[in-house]
Specification:
Low-confidence stretches: 1-36, 170-176
Structural class: mainly beta
Distance between the termini: 9 Å
Order of helices and strands: EEEEEEEEEEE
Number of helices: 0
Length: 178
């Protein structure tokens, strides 16, 4: 039997197995329940200087600069990139960033090779995107159209899946929910 059970305010898979031949002193079957859950954990920060405190750690394409605690695109032509390397191809990541100013054009987040990108971001705000790196180790921001605007607080963390299992054994099947 496989059902979902509520455990610690999370919906988790719940599996019951009956082991034949094991039981109490009086004979019978012993029931074993397994609570199993996958949880997403985030790694430590993987980006250096995501707050742009200094003009370092980032490769800047034409039209990009780092100043005043921001990465600034000034009339950057379409496709110009600001990026770092360090992702692992095939791993899943969560990135958060803030567009602090955008007067023309659009920004797009780049995850690996040029074919793996987010949708276009067209207004100021803080955004979170989940992605899998493909083709290269690059994480960056790319301009779409001639772009003038600024980015701050880029954070990238690997999403780590963890599976927890808890086995509960009971000799009396009637104590378990159906």
């Amino acid at each position: 039997m496989y059902i979902k059970a509520k455990y610690n305010n999370l919906i988790r898979p719940y599996m019951r197995t009956v082991k034949q031949g094991f039981g109490s002193l009086y004979g019978g079957n012993q029931t074993s329940d397994v609570l199993s859950a996958e949880e997403n954990l985030l790694s430590e920060e993987l980006i250096s200087n995501g707050t742009f405190d200094t003009d370092s750690d980032w490769t800047k394409g034409t039209g990009w600069s780092i100043s005043g605690g921001k990465a600034i695109a000034t009339s950057a032509s379409s496709g110009s990139q600001l990026y770092q390397n360090g992702l692992i191809v095939g791993k899943k990541y969560e990135t958060t960033f803030t567009i602090t100013d955008l007067t023309s054009g659009k920004f797009r987040v780049l995850f690996g090779d040029g074919g793996n990108t987010s949708g276009d971001f067209t207004s100021t705000g803080t955004y979170t995107v989940t992605f899998t790196a493909a083709g290269s180790t690059r994480l960056g921001v790319r301009t779409v159209g001639t772009t003038t605007g600024s980015i701050d607080n880029i954070s990238v963390k690997e999403i780590i899946k963890r599976t927890n299992e808890r086995t509960i054994e009971n000799e009396n099947e009637s104590n378990f929910p159906n």
